[in-house]
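Here is one chain, start to finish.
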Amino acid sequence: MIVGCWLDFWKISSVWRHIEHALQIQEEECVMVTADELPAVLNEYGTDIEMILFSGNQMHQNNLMPKMRETGAKLCYLYCSSIAQCDTSNEWGYILNFYDQLDKGEFDYLMVGEPWAKQVLNHEIAEKVKFMPQCYDLARFDYTKEGTIQDSFGLMSDIHAGRKNTGNQIAAIAQMQQIVPEIEMHCKNLRFNHEIWADMVDCKYTEYGWFPEHSDFMKTLSSMNVGMEVTMNEAFNFIAAEYMLFEIPVVIGPSVFWGPDFYRVKNPEDIGEITDKGLELLEAPYSQILAAKQIAIEKIEEYNAIGRQTFHEVLNG
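Its structure:
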């Protein structure tokens, strides 16, 4: 039995999805739970649990670590943020703290969302740092689309001030609207500063807020004409991949390193370049869209193979 747990408040989040998808591709029996559900699962399965893959900020507050340790399972903490953020945020502090906790034996393995995140450590515990990519069970993906909202640009990532590059994407869509007035931005929960920015650049938008179920989010995402994922930093980017699987062109930046060059802008801070690429992709040929879909499928299958290998190494290590 493998247990996945997101010890935080948001069930519909990229971290929850990172863990859940990693479990879905495994051959072993797996269960995904919230922090509130975890104690009951630990009591029910006890020593039958071989591994617990978890992340979030409540592991100490809720006193869950001793309870997880009592099962004898291998405890694996998932740190999935992009290490590239370290230049512009406090991610270095987080990663060094997790290395320290691993060294002290608070958990058995540290799983990181990027292969190079494990390479920054020159220490004897480095062998306990494992690459756990963002996986995806393609057999569960529902390719059904109920229609397209014409001239819609979807800005559907969680809105973070810096690394999601939201302001530049809003400004680019506003410029597109000057050329094609019918274009409208469709976005997920703009934060206050981005609402001000959208109003300042006179960008027409429809805001959806938090989606109660992930299926609602996917239904909306699949109705977009073009996706916008010109983010600064990513470990993979589920949403860019989902646009491609839905056969929707998506503007990406260098951080979505695996994506097709014909969807990519070279400079994520160049509003003009984002504008031009967005207008170009409104008329993207279907052959290009199919090629992008195949690229996404191949990358997902590659990451799934790595994910299974990582679980195998931990379970048998």
